Each structure stands twice: as C-alpha cells, then as structure tokens.
Inverse folding.
C-alpha cells in the first residue's frame, strides 16, 4: 500500500479579516492540497501558531499590529518558507527579486499568487533562507509612516502641545477625548477613530471603541470571568478590553 505524502502545512498572518479570508479562498482554489492550519490577526499570534503547528510555509503580512511581519520573519529565520504580503511594491520588488523569498501584493490576483505558489513549491526541497539581511533591506527601503507626534490641546486661551510618546492613554466620551499623561490630562476635539488611524499601531493599541493605550505604559493585565482589563501607568482605574481587541493580549 502506497503511503500518501504528508500535507504541506501553512499559516496565514493578515490583520485585515476580508483580505485574510480572500487569501484563504484563493489558496484553496490554487493549491487544494495545501493545509491551512491557522490564521493569525497579528504578529504575536503568528508566532504562537508557528510554535503549535510548525508549518512549512508562512504567508506573512508586513504591516501588522503587535509585531510586524519583518519582526516575525526575523524570529523565524531559517525555520520555514516565508511569503510576504504587502500593499507597497516599491520596497518589495527590489528586496525580494534575489529569489530566496517571494511576495504577493494586496489586493490579491490569481495570476501573481499562482506564480508565487509555483516558486514556493520549488523551494520546499531546500532549507528555508536566513532572513536577517533581507529584513534589513526591506526595513531600509520602507518609508517611515508619518505618524502623529504631537497632540494639540486647548487650555483656556492657550494651546498646549503634548508629545505623543508621553501619552499614557486616550479615552473618549461624547464629543471629546481625554488625553492622559503621567502628570496631567487634557481635552481634545478628536475622535478615537481618527487617533487610531494617526498613531503608530506598534506603539498604541486600541483596546475598546473608546480607549487607546500606550503599549509601553501597560503595567498589568488581568483576565477574569468578566473579561480582560489592563492597568496603565499613572491611572488608578483599570481599563476594559472589549472582545474585538482581546487577541492583542492573547500571548502576553
């Protein structure tokens, strides 16, 4: 009796649910024998899935919260074949044309994805590449995003400037958002949604529809029957983490 070869295992790490589902559907159509053992929403979860399943292939989004794709790739250097997912071909093409690692662009196209899969299949018989040099090239080629650096807060007739790195958390109520630092608080007319889009997602995590916290200000995480809460520096009360954002703390 001929034994069937073991299925090739893969993990998808993509923080956008629609694109994650789209990629999974396309992979099922283009490579039916590929076994997707898990899908991650961020870099921390991607590492956990790798440890649990030891996949041969990792489809890895470059831009993710928590740990980005480049940081994950560094930690998994030489352990699996990696296909980077990116929306920016300007920095991807030059770094990946060496051939050791491939990439796919968002939004996905079957022709480009099929080419990537052919290349990955050919590489499965070779040792996974070391990633340090490639990661350094991609990181150097990326244009740093223009994240928010200062918050403007009115105080009577004066305008205060608060450095974002000094902010402990943002909490919204009605039409206003309160900015908390170690030593003061201020009111601004800026929504949490607007702030979330302007802040560095690796430094600031939205944990609730009305709350954003500075990751470096987190002192404690509590899990209980009522859910997850976090204690941040200089704030007496714990902040509730809504279910939609609990995955950020799953492996902390």
């Amino acid at each position: 009796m001929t034994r069937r070869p073991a299925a090739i295992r893969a993990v998808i790490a993509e923080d956008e649910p629609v694109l994650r589902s789209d990629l999974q559907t396309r992979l099922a159509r283009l490579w039916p024998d590929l076994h997707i053992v898990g899908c991650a929403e961020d870099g921390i979860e991607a590492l956990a899935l790798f440890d649990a399943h030891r996949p041969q292939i990792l489809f890895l989004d470059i831009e993710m919260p928590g740990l980005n794709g480049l940081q994950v790739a560094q930690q998994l250097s030489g352990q699996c074949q990696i296909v980077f997912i990116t929306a920016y071909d300007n920095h991807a093409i030059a770094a990946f044309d060496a051939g050791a690692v491939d990439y796919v662009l968002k939004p996905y196209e079957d022709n480009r994805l099929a080419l990537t899969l052919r290349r990955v299949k050919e590489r499965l018989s070779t040792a996974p590449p070391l990633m340090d040099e490639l990661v350094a090239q991609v990181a150097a080629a990326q244009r740093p995003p223009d994240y928010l650096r200062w918050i403007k807060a009115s105080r009577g007739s004066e305008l205060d400037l608060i450095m974002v790195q000094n902010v402990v958390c943002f909490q919204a109520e009605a039409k206003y958002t309160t900015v908390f630092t170690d030593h003061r608080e201020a009111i601004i007319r800026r929504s949490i949604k607007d702030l979330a889009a302007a802040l560095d997602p690796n430094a600031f995590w939205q944990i609730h529809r009305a709350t954003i916290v500075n990751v470096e200000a987190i002192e404690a995480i509590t899990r209980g029957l009522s859910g997850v809460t976090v204690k941040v520096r200089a704030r007496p009360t714990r902040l509730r983490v809504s279910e939609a954002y609990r995955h950020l703390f799953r492996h902390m």
Q: What stands out?
A: DSSP finds seven helices and 15 strands in the chain. The first helix runs from residue 17 to 30. The mean pLDDT is 87. Residues 227 and 241 are 7 Å apart (CA to CA).
